[in-house]
Amino acid sequence: MIKSTLINVKKYSFLIQQLVIRDFKVKYKRSVLGIVWSLLYPVLMMAVMAVVFSQMFKFKVEGINYLVYLMTGLIMFNYFSEASSSAMISVVSNFSLINKVYIPKYIFPVSKCLFVLINFVLTLIPWLGIILLSYVGLGQYTCHLNIYYLILPYVFLCLFLFTMGMGLLLSCISVFLRDIIYIYGIIITIWNYLTPVFYSVEILPKDLQTIMGFNPLYRLLDAARQIVLYGQAPSLMNLIIIGLIGIVSLIIGGLVFKKNQNKFIYYI
Amino acid sequence: MIKLENVSMKFNLGVEKDFSLKQAFINILSFKRNKKKKDFFWALNDINLHIKPGEVVGLIGSNGAGKSTLLKIVSGVIKPTKGKVIVNGVISPMIELGAGFDHELTAKENIYLNGAILGYSKKLIDEKFEEIVEFSELRDFLNVPIKNFSSGMIAKLAFSIATIVNPEILIVDEILSVGDIKFQEKSKKKMMSLIKGGTTVLYVSHSLESIKELCTRVVWIEHGKIVKVGDTEEICDEYYNKQMN
Fold first, then answer.
1. Which residues of A touch B20 (CB under 8 A)?
2. Which CATH class is domain B2-90+204-244?
3. What pLDDT, on a 0 to 100 scale, did the predictor assign at position A191?
4. In Å, what is the CA distance from A60 to each residue of A44, A177, A198, A205, B14?
5. A233: DSSP letter
6. How close A20 comes to chain B (CA, Å)?
7. Residues A67, A137 contacting (CB under 8 angstroms)
8. Among A9, A112, A91, CA closest to A262
9. Which residues are CB-neighbours of A187 under 8 A, at least 6 positions away?
């Protein structure tokens, strides 16, 4: 099954590529700054949140650079929320196409996750910029580039797999239950607050901290932050856990999608 | 080669109203599935059909008889409820032209996007790009977003992309003559050359004349069932008489 899936992916890689290019062209159409927005937007978002949380609410995390803490959480969580949301509606919004031409349906959620991934990779540029600026005194503490940064691609890969699994699952559910599109908007907001994007997990009561361990996004964020802010490698256990998070999510999402995709056509 | 064995296709009619969280919730509360609705119908019922390579088969029947459903099943867009479909060869479904055009993109970008959707490789599109542009007569508008195109121009572009390959199996819903008079003639000629080029063709049309002109065999479908299969002239005439009475 895996082999045939891979052959299939190879066969349709050109289509996926075209869909991703399409999304890019449409996204930045008629905007003066165009792709620069991909770089600028997360910085501005971070700046706003930094002012709100560190100046107004006096949030800080002891001993580390809060700006980098915030931005790391922000770009990773935003990747998840944006990619999973757009993947969710991708099948429904391409119904007219699905009804006319044979295309493997997983192409739509997968291409959305990839499109947002490219955007995510672009946001790593300003993110790295903030880290480097911490050397010259941006924020209270300096972040040190270190060898463990080489683990980051693995962490991001796990995030990507987890998101893709969720995207497949959600896009499948949305075919049968359009309400999920609204429900998920609420869920993602709740999830945002339940994930330590702008606060530190230490400010939570002890038992809540334990429960936090079950939040996959917290696990992923935590692994990345450990590398970037504390200059430590995540424990092997944690690395295995985030790997499992990605793979299990992809398997569940993939299986649910595969099992139901032939019924999509009845729910147009 | 196309082979259909005992193919049946069931559609639910009430499915749209049925599916909401509210309804699901009500169903859970009342501990039963909503049984009173049995709004389904068989769009196709036990279809057996064998089309040999190189055959040009026409499909006739009144509206809603199941012709388009049959085409969709053969092209793989829908899976039949029951039965088996065997299709050997590269299919080019010309059921709907221009599916997957993005109106924000330029004509050039759409050639690649639409080509990819139709399953062409990048190499093929690169090679045939000139030919597509030439045939579509839209060279001057290549870098214009197609939302600014007239519907005729869009149809010309779509037709040019769809007919650029020589498929092993061609599925056609109505003769696709689009655009202005000149282009209509050109597209008709192109279709004829594709159909007569030795490919297997499954052709739906309400024009009995073009069926008679092209097809080696005719399948007459009514209410999801095959009424008759056989000689073109004979069945077309019988169908015509039946329809007119």
1. 177-179
2. alpha beta
3. 96
4. 19, 41, 9, 17, 56
5. P
6. 10
7. no
8. A91
9. none
The C-alpha angle B33, B36, B38, rounded to 5 degrees, equals: 100
Quick check: B117 and A101 CB within 8 A? yes
Sign of the CA dihedral running A265, B3, B8, B13: positive
Residue-level length of chain A? 268
Ramachandran assignment for B200, one of left (phi > 0), alpha (psi -120 to 50 degrees), beta (any other): beta
Structural contact between residues B202 and B71, judged by C-beta atoms closer than 8 angstroms: yes
Question: Would you call A103 and B104 a contact, using CB atoms and an 8 Å cutoff?
Answer: no
* Res B177 pLDDT > 80: no
Contact list, A14 vs chain B (CB under 8 Å): 116, 121-122
Cα–Cα nearest to A71, from A115, A118, A33, A128: A128
Q: Which residues contact B172 (CB under 8 A, 6 or more apart)?
A: B94, B191, B195, B201, B202, B203, B204, B205
Our CA angle for A80, A162, A8, nearest 5°, is 110
Residue of B177 and A73 predicted with greater confidence = A73
Strands (E), chain B: 2-12, 40-51, 56-60, 82-87, 91-94, 169-173, 200-204, 217-222, 225-230
Residues of chain A with pLDDT under 50: none
CA A149/CA A108 separation, integer angstroms:
32
Q: Report the alpha-carbon distance of residue B54 to residue B169 in Å, rounded.
A: 9
Which ipTM did the prediction report? Answer: 0.82
Which residue intervals of A94-151 are DSSP H helices? 95-98, 107-133
φ and ψ of B46, to 5 deg:
55, 60
pLDDT in tens, A36-52: 888 888 889 888 988 88
A112 SS3 class:
helix
Task: Give residues with Cβ within 8 angstroms of B64, minimum separation 6.
Answer: none
Q: What pairs with residue B41 in β-bridges?
A: B11
Taking an 8 Å Cβ-Cβ cutoff, which residues of chain A contact chain B?
Answer: 14-15, 17-19, 21-22, 25-26, 29, 96-103, 176-179, 262, 265-267
Of A18, A25, A267, the CB nearest to B116: A18
Phi first, then psi: what are they for B19, rounded to 5°?
-100, 95
Q: Tell me which residue of A73, A27, A9, A28 sits closest to A229, measured CA to CA.
A: A73
For chain B, what is the mean pLDDT?
Answer: 84
pLDDT of the residue at A10: 79
Cα(A21)–Cα(B106) distance, integer angstroms: 13
Maximum separation of any 2 CA atoms in chain B, in Å: 64
Nearest Cβ partner of B77 from A26, A100, A267?
A: A100
Q: Higher-confidence residue: B83 or B92?
A: B83
* Chain A interface test: which of B19, B68, B73, B85 (most A C-beta within 10 Å): B19
